[in-house]
Amino acid sequence: MCEAFGVQENPTITAAEIARLAGVGRAAVSNWRKRHPDFPAPVGGTTASPEFDLIQVEQWLRAQGKLPELATADRLWRHLAAASETPAAGLAAVGAFLLARQRGSRTGQPDAHLAPLMTDIVELADELGPQGAFDELWQRFSAPGPGRPFATPDDLADLMIGLANVGGGSVLDPAAGSGAILRAAVRAGSTSVYGQELDDGLARLAGLWLALHDVPGEVSTGDSLRADAFAGRAVDAVVCHPPFGATNWGDDELGHDPRWIVGTTPRTEPELAWVQHALAHLRVGGHAVLLMPPTVASRRAGKRIRGELLRRGHLRAVIALPPGVAAPHGVPLHLWVLRRAATDAPPPARALLIDAAGGDLTDTGPRVLAAWRDFADAPDGDVEEAGFARAVPVIELLDEDVDLTPARRQPAVVGEASGEHLARTRERLAAIVGELPGLLPQVTTAPDGPDGLFLTVGELAKTGALQLIGPVRAGTSTPAPHGPPVLTVQDVLAGLDASGRVDDRFGQEIPLAVGDVVVPMIARQLTARVVTAEGALLGRNLYLLRPNAAALDPWFLAGQLRTSANEKQSSSLSGTMRFDIRRAQVRRLSLDEQRVHGDAFRRLDAFESAIRQAATLGAELAQLTADGLARGSIRPDATR
């Protein structure tokens, strides 16, 4: 068991990793080594890049008061990630042990390489159960970081599964990675899932997740195009994030493959090979959803295949997504939605093109899903939302280029660019800019310098100074047709009112109160927001900090949380932007002093809100002016 788990007897850590561990710069670690004779000596590496015993370093940092106490899962993952050949191999080794434990195999000794970590593994399994322990470690593995592959984000995977209309049917992902899409299928109610993945370590992880969650299915290792592990199997849905731009995908040996149901795939169009592979595994009427690079919609080499997919009624929609929805790709990727058409059925007259590239997936995802469902219910209907969605006649798409880029098929949205509109927009911008200096709080240098007395959020929760709630996970509550709005992560980051709604994935309903402080668990930077109105529910992936009014001022708390130091302190060892807010530190001040500081933080929040408004209005003003000048509806004022 666990041959690939290259765990050392004594896990090591570099000086740079020690700095991240303690939340300091590398220079501080160098100073500690010079000034403290008891600092652990190197146990490996080189003179220029020494390595230290991780456990010895942690003990020294803790004795010096430089290391916050960690939860068992955090401590175990830190040791596992530092000591493993790869994070995937380390998690797979622990997962295999947890699966054996879940199935009743408690006798004998596990792999010897796990011995230094067994106390924490058993403690976590006793506390949460084998499945819960694996899920805790999985959360840490799935955060982007060194040695970990980019996974399809959950919100994108959920959208893809929603478009495929999985329900309780069977799902196949032929490029499964670590299983993000398969997990989304299970969340949506799929009763059996299958996957194939080229990387053996990732395939093992995805299979372990299914086994520990008692989900029927199988994940095989191998190249789906060259060695299809599920040849001959038809499923209800194929959902896939295939590799992009492969230059050696097997076109020479697969020239007459029976999966090419609309024609031989050109060598330069590997993504269209994945499209045909997906179609070949669908039952008639089943849907496939694939994430694609945008060039596949317009490259000349793929024109014939695109045309045949349209003529035979297989290609039903192309959806342009916002930029950056799936790292490391920064361009607006596309989703292709296909339906396996019966050979004797007349092809639909229209295909749906959606241009959602200008928004954010949190906002546009539900809109995309609604437009697709409207179209799927009436595929020959005239679905059209100016600048967003259009059911395009197939005959129109079958032109010289067969270009399926959604933005090129949308009717233009002509904005008002009259002199009066421009003047109103300019006046609004000037008014906001004029208010900016007065919004900034007045500050002076503290005569005694920085005050170093701090408590962590975890310590404040233990003393009763605040209540820590959440984050809310996906659940199975029944959606209310007209329920209260839900405050989402995107709302918090953008400073907007609650815009979400309770859906069939919503967990516990937690009403927000005035004075609550909410913090996203995953974001590009640590953000804290004070709730100023009642009536909304706490959304998924948000921490809720409810201050005791007799001990903490909410604006002071929010201002303290959002510092650069807390961003480093509360993020993971790998530097990812997944935050454990319990580690964040809050300065100790009397309640009266907190209120003075809280007022300054409140003014700073208003200043930032005004800056955002000014940026939005400035961009709108520039676009209106450019459009008006180009169309001739306005002209330059020669007198200025």
Automatic annotation (TrEMBL):
This is N-6 DNA Methylase. One of its GO terms (biological process) is methylation. GO terms for molecular function: DNA binding; N-methyltransferase activity. Residues 150-408 form the DNA methylase adenine-specific domain. Keywords: Methyltransferase, Transferase. It holds the Pfam family N6_Mtase. The lineage of its organism: Bacteria, Bacillati, Actinomycetota, Actinomycetes, Micromonosporales. It comes from the Bacteria. InterPro entries: DNA_methylase_A-5, SAM-dependent_MTases_sf, Type-I_RE_MTase_Subunit.
